[in-house]
Design a protein that fits this description.
Elements (H helix, E strand, L loop, with lengths): L1 H24 L3 H79 L4 E9 L2 E8 L5 H15 L6 E5 H4 L23
Parallel strand pairs: 2-3
Antiparallel strand pairs: 1-2
């Protein structure tokens, strides 16, 4: 921007020097009036040209801003779509993996009601609901099967009984111990 202003000032200075030189070369004062008039018009054009170029650039500025905004908005939308696709794919994989684990455990003689799988990066976590309260032997068999067949570590396996997964709000066991004989919460 500074360079444009300096070059504009330089052009005006050169123009003024040429105007002065031309006025001294003109033989009579009668022609000097015409030369001054013509050079005045040229000076006006020289003064207005940078302002007009700034105005055209100011017209282009919203267009360029709009174009950049649209590009950024498109990138954001593409990123959102990629994240949405990833989430949908991950959710579908979790559901399918849960169903496959459920079938696998049932084929091996382990009675399972439901299996829920969560994928966290490279880590798989599984929650398995059994029909009866699992003893250590049943838990060990389930965890071994999940580790062998599916690569799920024992510490990432949660074994629950069908009663644990089907608690209701009115169930006394879901809200802790009762503080009074017929109340399940501490609110009076």
């Amino acid at each position: 921007m500074k360079e444009a202003i300096y070059s504009w000032i330089k052009c005006l200075a050169i123009f003024y020097i040429l105007l002065t030189m031309l006025l001294h070369l003109v033989p009579t004062e009668k022609y000097q009036r015409y030369v001054r008039f013509f050079m005045g018009l040229v000076l006006m054009v020289m003064l207005v040209t940078p302002v007009l170029s700034l105005l055209e650039k100011s017209r282009q500025l919203p267009d360029s801003f709009s174009g950049l905004y649209q590009q950024e908005e498109q990138k954001r939308m593409e990123l959102e779509m990629e994240n949405l696709q990833k989430n949908l794919l991950e959710t579908g994989m979790e559901e399918q993996l849960g169903e496959n684990i459920l079938e696998s455990l049932q084929k091996n003689g382990i009675e399972v009601l439901y299996c829920e799988v969560h994928i966290e990066g490279e880590l798989l976590k599984a929650s398995v609901w059994t029909k009866e309260v699992p003893d250590e032997d049943l838990e060990g068999r389930i965890k071994d099967e999940l580790g062998k067949e599916w690569g799920i570590r024992a510490e990432n396996c949660e074994i629950l009984s069908g009663e644990d997964g089907n608690q209701t709000v009115g169930d006394p066991s879901s809200s802790g111990t009762a503080s009074d004989s017929d109340r399940t919460s501490g609110v009076r």
